[in-house]
Every structure is written in C-alpha cells, then in structure tokens.
C-alpha cells in the first residue's frame, strides 16, 4: 500500500512539473555527455600511448658532409667513430635500457626520404651522399630517452639525438588540454544540474504543501514524506544519464568505429564496448548528484 502510494505521488509530481523535469533531463544529459566524452578521450589517449610509445625510436644522427654541428667540426663521421658509437650502444652499461639497435645507411635514408616526400616539392632535393646515416634505437622503456641523449650528445661524429617521443608528447599534451576543458565544462554543467534539481524539488514540494501538511498531522515520517520528491529528481537525472550514454554510443559507433577507424588504420580506437563500461558510471554520477541535491533541499523545505 505504501509503495503504491509513493509511486502514485512520484508520477503525480513528474506530471505536474513536466517542464522542469524535462529541463533536469536535458541539463543532466548535456553535463554527463561532457563527463563521458572526457573519460572516453582519456581512454583513447591511453590506447594511443600504449600503441605509439611501444613503436617510437630514438635516432642518433651521424655527421653528414658540411655539417655545422659542434660534434662535426672534423667533417663527416668516420668508420672508427661509427664503430665506437655502435659498441657503446651495445655495451653492458646501456643494455638495461636498449632493446634493439638498427643502423640506417645513406641509401636507406635516401629511400625513406623519397618515400616520405614523394609527390612534393622536396622530392629529390637532397642527394644521396648528403643524407644522414643514423642508429635507430628502440628502448625498453621509452621514457628513458634522456639516458641516450646524455650519452651521445657530445660524442664526436654525432650530429644530434632525436626522440620521437617529443612529438608524441606535444600531441598528447593537446589531447590532455582538451580533456581538462571538457571536464571544466562538465563541472559547470553538473553544478547547473544540481541547482536545477534543487529548484524543481522545491517547487514540487511547494505545490504539494497541503498534502505534506496532512501527512505531518497523521504522523508520517520524514522518509515517507521526502521519498516521492527524492525519487522524482533521481528518475529525471537517471533518464538524462541514460540518454547521454546512448548519445556517446551512437557517436562512437558511427563517428569513431565507423568513419575514423577507416581513416586511421593501424592502431586501435575506442569502441562501443568502452561506452558500455562507462555507462554505469554516468548513471551512478547522475543518481548521486540528484540524490544529494534533493536531500539538501528536502531537509530544508519538508522536514517535520
């Protein structure tokens, strides 16, 4: 009997304040959409880091002819210098950090240059004998790049040491900033949602002040009086959270797994399964947000 009465009160409140309830649904939808987008973006950044950091290399470029680098004052790298650099890369001191070492000669460097700039104005602009020879070093831990740089930055015959991680760090830095912006917007929207939920509950309690007054006279408890109002906010917020999860699922399915995956072949992107993982999180956030906001308001306006 009590359950039936509470459910009827919840339905009556949702129907009476439909426009406000709809506003709660929409603002919760938008705010949790940003929260979900931020979580998915960080998941994608993590996948990209795992993929690229496992493949990046440190390039120890050797002195070409006519280089102006400090270590190249004696001209092009000599055979003895190359042997010394290789021996140091394969030494026991660097063994804990170096996974593989590959030497790229001028002809290979020239082929890679031609392939990279094929069809552009740079194709064929650098002759083969002016290309840099280099040692390509794959590290066991990509974050230990500084050890290789410190070891070879002043070595005769080495023009420069280049770490591909530096380029990736810039990319991931931009993505992390985008995540922070999304979280900031989501935080503002969540505050707006809580304020709107509080306003909706307060209006609902005011419109039914006569019923709650009668319930007080017959000895109804705080919980019994407040529960219908609490459920109204929770239901509206849960609907908004579910809609945000559904929108993210559609976006990932058609935009990322569909279109973007065909354009960015070669590494994995987030999928619908990732959305399924975060959907319960979004719903829990929505429910807790609505519950906290409703309780604070109800304790002020409907307390016996």
TrEMBL record:
<feature type="domain" description="ABC3 transporter permease C-terminal">
    <location>
        <begin position="184"/>
        <end position="299"/>
    </location>
</feature>
<keyword id="KW-0812">Transmembrane</keyword>
<dbReference type="InterPro" id="IPR047929">
    <property type="entry name" value="FtsX_actino"/>
</dbReference>
<feature type="domain" description="FtsX extracellular">
    <location>
        <begin position="56"/>
        <end position="161"/>
    </location>
</feature>
<dbReference type="InterPro" id="IPR004513">
    <property type="entry name" value="FtsX"/>
</dbReference>
<keyword id="KW-1133">Transmembrane helix</keyword>
<keyword id="KW-1003">Cell membrane</keyword>
<keyword id="KW-0131">Cell cycle</keyword>
<keyword id="KW-0472">Membrane</keyword>
<feature type="transmembrane region" description="Helical">
    <location>
        <begin position="224"/>
        <end position="256"/>
    </location>
</feature>
<dbReference type="Pfam" id="PF18075">
    <property type="entry name" value="FtsX_ECD"/>
</dbReference>
<feature type="transmembrane region" description="Helical">
    <location>
        <begin position="21"/>
        <end position="43"/>
    </location>
</feature>
<protein>
    <recommendedName>
        <fullName>Cell division protein FtsX</fullName>
    </recommendedName>
</protein>
<keyword id="KW-0132">Cell division</keyword>
<comment type="function">
    <text>Part of the ABC transporter FtsEX involved in cellular division.</text>
</comment>
<feature type="transmembrane region" description="Helical">
    <location>
        <begin position="276"/>
        <end position="298"/>
    </location>
</feature>
<comment type="similarity">
    <text>Belongs to the ABC-4 integral membrane protein family. FtsX subfamily.</text>
</comment>
<comment type="subunit">
    <text>Forms a membrane-associated complex with FtsE.</text>
</comment>
<dbReference type="InterPro" id="IPR003838">
    <property type="entry name" value="ABC3_permease_C"/>
</dbReference>
<dbReference type="InterPro" id="IPR040690">
    <property type="entry name" value="FtsX_ECD"/>
</dbReference>
<feature type="transmembrane region" description="Helical">
    <location>
        <begin position="177"/>
        <end position="203"/>
    </location>
</feature>
<dbReference type="Pfam" id="PF02687">
    <property type="entry name" value="FtsX"/>
</dbReference>
């Amino acid at each position: 009997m009590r359950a039936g009465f509470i459910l009827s009160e919840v339905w009556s409140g949702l129907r009476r304040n439909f426009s406000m309830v709809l506003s709660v649904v929409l603002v919760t939808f938008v705010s949790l959409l940003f929260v979900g987008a931020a979580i998915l973006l960080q998941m994608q950044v993590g996948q990209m880091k795992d993929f690229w950091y496992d493949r990046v290399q440190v390039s120890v470029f050797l002195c070409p002819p006519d280089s102006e680098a400090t270590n190249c004052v004696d001209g092009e790298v000599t055979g003895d210098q190359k042997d010394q650099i290789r021996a140091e890369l394969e030494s026991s001191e660097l063994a804990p950090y170096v996974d593989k070492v590959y030497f790229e000669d001028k002809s290979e460097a020239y082929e890679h240059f031609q392939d990279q700039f094929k069809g552009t104005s740079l194709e064929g602009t650098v002759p083969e004998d002016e290309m840099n020879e280099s040692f390509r070093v794959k590290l066991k831990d990509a974050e230990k790049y500084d050890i290789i740089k410190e070891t070879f930055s002043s070595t005769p015959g080495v023009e420069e040491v280049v770490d591909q991680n530096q380029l990736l760090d810039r990319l991931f830095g931009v993505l992390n900033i985008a995540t922070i912006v999304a979280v900031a917007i989501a935080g503002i929207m969540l505050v707006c949602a809580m304020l709107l939920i509080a306003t909706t509950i307060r209006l609902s309690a005011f419109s039914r002040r006569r019923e709650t007054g009668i319930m007080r006279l017959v000895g109804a408890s705080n919980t019994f009086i407040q529960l219908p109002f609490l459920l109204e906010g929770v239901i509206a917020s849960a609907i908004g959270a579910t809609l945000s999860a559904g929108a993210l699922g559609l976006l990932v399915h058609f935009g990322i797994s569909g279109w973007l995956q065909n354009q960015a072949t070669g590494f994995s992107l987030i999928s619908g399964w990732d959305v399924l993982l975060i959907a319960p999180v979004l719903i829990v956030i929505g429910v807790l947000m609505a519950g906290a906001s409703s309780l604070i308001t109800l304790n002020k306006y409907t307390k016996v």
